[in-house]
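To make the argument concrete, we let one protein speak, a sequence paired with a row of structure tokens, as a model reads it:
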Amino acid sequence: MSRTAKLKSLRAARSGINIISDHSDSEQDSYQLYDTVDEEEYRKRKRKEILEDDFIVDDNGEGYVDTGADEWEGGYYDDQDDNPDYDDQENEDPLTTKHKTKPKKVKQINQFFTSTESKVKPVKSLKVDDILNDFESKPTHAGSPFQVKSGSKSTMFGGNKRAKLENTQKKKKVGLFSSEKKRKLNPSSSSIVNNDEINSEDIERSIDVEQHLDQPKPDIKEMNSSPIKQKVISLDQTQDEESDEELLISRRARTANTEISREVNMRASVIEEKAADADSSSSPTRSRSIMTSSPSKVTKLGGTDLSEGPVLMYWLDYVEVNHKLLLFGKVRTSSGALVSAMVQVGGVDREIYILPRSSHRSDSSAPCGPMDVHEEITPLLLEKYGLKSIRAKPVTMKYAFELPGVPSEADYLKILLPHDTPLNADLALPSSLEGETFQRVFGGHSALFEDFVLQKDVMGPCWLEISNPDFDSMRNSSHCRVEMAIQSPKDITVYRGTDQTAPNLTVLGITVQTVMNTRTNNQEVAAVSIATFNELPQELPIPEDLQPDELITLIRPLGDSTVFPPGVQRAIEKQGLKIRCTPNEKTLLNLLCALVKRADPDVFVGHRIESIQLDVLVHRLYDLKVPTWSSFGRLNKKVWPDRFPRRSGGPSKVREIFHGRLLCDIGNDMGQSLTTKCQSWDLPEMYQSVCGKTFKPSEIALNNPQLSENVNLLLTVAKEGASMVQITSEITFRIQILSLSKILTNLAGNAWSHTLGGTRAGRNEFILLHEFRKNGYIVPDKENFYQKHQQQQLQDQSPEDDETTKISSKKNNKFKGGLVFEPEKGLHRNIVLVLDFNSLYPSIIQEFNICFTTVERESGNVDTIPPVPVQNSQQGVLPRLLANLVSRRREVKKLLKDSKIGPVEKAQFDIKQQALKLTANSMYGCLGYVNSRFYARPLAMLVTSKGREILMDTRQLAESLGLKVVYGDTDSVMIDSGTIDYQEAIAIGEDLKAKVNERYSLLEIDIDNVFKRILLHAKKKYAAMNLSLQNGKMVSQLEVKGLDMRRREYCQLSKEISTHVLEQILGENDSDEALSDIYQYLETMGTKIRENSIPITKFNINTKLSKDPAQYANAGGMPQVQVALRLRGQGKVVKAGTVVSFIVTAGDDNLSVAERARPLAEVLATPEQLRPDPDYYLEKQIFAPVERLVERLEGVDLVRLAKCLGLDSGRYARIRTQYANGGANGDDLLQPLESCISDAERFKEAATLELTCTCGAHFAFGGIQESSYYTVTFSGIQCSSCGTQLSSLRVASQLERLIRHHISLYYAGWVECDDVSCGVHTRQVSVYGKRCIGNTGRSVGCKGVISYVYTDRELYNQLLYLESLFDVDKARRQELRPLQDDTENRIRSDSGETKKGISQSTLDALAEQNRDTFGAFQSVVQKYFEQCGRRYVDMASLFNFS
């Protein structure tokens, strides 16, 4: 029976037709069309067939890439699956699906990327790059717009299922898992359908959407959708019927529509194809190109295309895939051209250090060593990770970090454990792992990239020398021109030559305009503008006015319409705009992917692209199943990341899509750190602040129906997108973020993408990792969130039976920072000098040699400030690193001052010195940042303690010279020079500067500012007129810090008025003239506000959301939240961190301020209906900040101030009267008697607090005052005998012991007789009340009255005294009870020495710095006050008449 007959029988059986066979029964029985097997046998055969399938016999690298991705057939789609599906493919086999969802082995990276080649007759097909053919001004003609291919199945390993091709001379037999067959369509065939009947979804599946739009529309006839009866035109017209029938079995057609080619050429080799002549009709939906650039023909390069010898590659970015490292960058070809490249680095090992125990855990007499650990742990690792061998050796390493019980130097067992192990590659060794012979593991869960850069000493982007590269194993795994793989890190080294310069970059600016789809409640892409800049230098300054090499805007129909307004194409051509119209969003995204692939950018530049724009863009690529989405990165991927969210706003994995290309966002933390003058960091504000230019967005709602009718309105949207991408690029080049971030990365030794993301802590971490590894130290393990949470739970479960341990609560867990003096509030008319320490904390670290390796910390005690290392000790790693950075910056600054260098070199040197400064100044942060890998609380406390001490010493020195310190903050002091002459003031400052610098070898103070006048309002809040000498002329400029006008919550009008008020206060006029001008000015502005004659934009208020607007509990009373919810309802992207701009409008007085708040764009759109509320702005935005500015001036009248603004002056008159009467309620006029006497009189009978030091010394503590036995420092109480700092726990324990002692005295109940002749002292009480019981105990012979020896009043007074000892406000006013020490007074009197107290300035500083610590001690006393009945009066018992 022939195969044709068998198939005929099969079709008949499926149709239910009974066919009489000519064969005998025995022959029929002996023949079985199918084998009957059980389920288990079927699975075995199925798996064997899949594993032995060759997929493809060599197809010469054309038309196929095996990316390891699973391509499901279109008949079946699971919404829970995260993989992109093609609707035209068949259902996956259930058995294969089961195996797919539960893989048993971790896939190797070459399974994902290695392509197999098949020898197939080459045919013309439409590639991704063909989209770009339409950019030609005169497209050429192509024969057929479409191609068809047979169906395909996918395997559990990804890629198309292809059976072995049996090469014969006459025909090619195709099995169930047949390879795809490409066929040419007959233009007259019925398989071509009318364009009007083509489903839009089917059109969108075509990769060549743009070429399709410009080609003539063929005639169409409806096709039969039956999978059996449908005929497919054969590629070879001579094929017999048997071959045609086999093709019918291999595919089931889904619809009757035309079979459009869905083949995506992910290979670099391109087959040229002629484009069809563009139809010159005036259809508005037809896409046309106004550009003349030709599409790039990307071809893969091999080893023969590169220079001989090792390959030099400049790496820019990285990604970890399947425990292998992929580096992306550029290589130089043999012709000298730079092309994109990728190298896979395999064989990277973890360096694991295992600390042996001193002895066996089960036998303390048996010592342990590294070899004992080797015998124990090696078999476990071999079995757990499926290794045949493992490399290990004993090494001696040092440790200097915060883990207790780890020796400073010891012998370790060093193990090299591969990242890519056969088994359990994702399993990391926990650091707390213990065994019989070892107690801890270091480096068990280090990252792959970290291990690579540390072991190879890679310090950021640089040239790498690659030996023995394999150019075949990684073919078509990326979008790079060159693809390589090396098996071992030994084959890659840092190139140390000086003949290679950093390659230029291709930068692509992008702006995405989005619109809300109200039906699906999703953000969609409305338009995209991209600007390409080629050959931009990495380290040299880029001209800010640089024009892009290519600029184009892609736009789709808007205004809830599917067509463009009539005449849009003619308007584009007439105005010469670089705009490309696309019929729908998916076509736009397809074209965008092709443009990105052609440009092959190294860097994406934009404003808030990662958090908003690219987030929407990527999610739309996912939702619309755009097959070429991976073009945005350099990895050629088919499968989306696991659990990728289908909707915007979910957990973001945007960076995973862009691996291989850098993201430079000027609106993220990195960009904000370079534009500190901005408040909202919106694009118009950044443009004004950085470039000094104005940009006003049109604020056109992209869902406005007029956009589908008005051509000019639509073009305004497109032109605005083009302007925004150019503005973004200009800001980027002006702040030099690329050059600065690159140098910072080279200094830190991390990845460029990390620096661009704004991770300052990450830079500090990597630079310390490199430095400590070079010096032979084991570095701390990086804890993940789970490990930190587990450690916190252990701390929370620790016993806290003793109440004194509560003083280290979470509220007081933060250590003290810099010292801030209490300002001399008011207006200072003399010149005030600001002396500032240069890089105070880094200088302290160098001056006192503070490092992990030099400072001895008390194990387990993180709240005690450790002592300063002894002098002449070996320099620590951290001081040496800082000294290197500082010296390098000093050398660069010398070069910067050279008059011979040009402007380009000067800008380059300035960027380098700025990077060195930022790196050095941020090093201290890693010590005090809780989430830092190198967090060391004792070291941070020591640094800040020395900073407070240095600032106080500077203040005392200035006061000893007769100068007045008016304010000080952390690293600077403000000195009242006592003169108004500039030169005289400078001379005074230079003299003080020289005396301060004499005290230190590395610390240096300098005159930072000269203030002609200064208005001190509060701590960190002041305004001053800064004097500077420019070109021989004295120039004054207003400088404001911390005041209301510096906050974004106040509108621009409020800031302008506050600026005018400050200029009057700090001007040449006296106070009366200044106030008169202020009153007149406010009256004028109040009139203008009420007449609505001020531009609406000046009433705009900016407020940043700290969380998602839907998560606010009291959202009803918050204007910014109400506006955010309103914007979200209009389709805007609003999330945590968004700065909301709004105006409080006038309206119904019954509505709250929050209900009357409206977005700025809405007010601008309807100015006749919405106008600012004058009463709200006059009272809240103008009067309140102005009042705070003038309240310290002599002669100010708040009532007149309110009257000038048209406010209720009577209310402010009442407030003034209340203040004049001694308080808001007049309570200050009535004081209790005990509060009117001094503490010396009130507590003269109270017992002193005796404290005991660890050295055994005892002394009476009397608070912050002068004593010979103790000293109150900025960090607490210090014993004068030994210099030891008493811990908070020690002081609190001794305080509570004294309190309990007095309470026990009270409860002992001792009484005594007031008759001196009796003298009874007993605890017995007579039944006659207070009558003495006498010596006989019978209450006879004595007429005295007994009373308690220790009364409740004395106990209460004792508690009040102990509480007053820690009252820092009383200490500042010097109201504490003085210490009574007759011995000390006698010695001083005999020697003729007079007792010298603490200066007021020192008292103020000590009081502020010890406020939190002393407050914790007061809480110990307060605990007993709450149990003391004397403190409370039962009013019910006094006034109850029942």
